[in-house]
Amino acid sequence: MPNSANETMDLIWEVAEIAKLIGRTDRQTFHMLSAGLLPAKKVGGRWVCSRSKLIAFFMEAAA
User: Quick one: fold of 4-62?
Assistant: First the structure.
């Protein structure tokens, strides 16, 4: 199990950063987040997701 320092470094905050990682526009990413199409949560008005879970999500979809 990863320690909390690694988990913190694995988190991606904000739509723009998530969009960069998945190669989509901010608008496309916001729609995907709002529709529940990505493994992310809204925390205090900001979207956050785990980099490793997001990558695994897309790798699983590609298989």
Answer: Arc Repressor Mutant, subunit A (1.10.10)
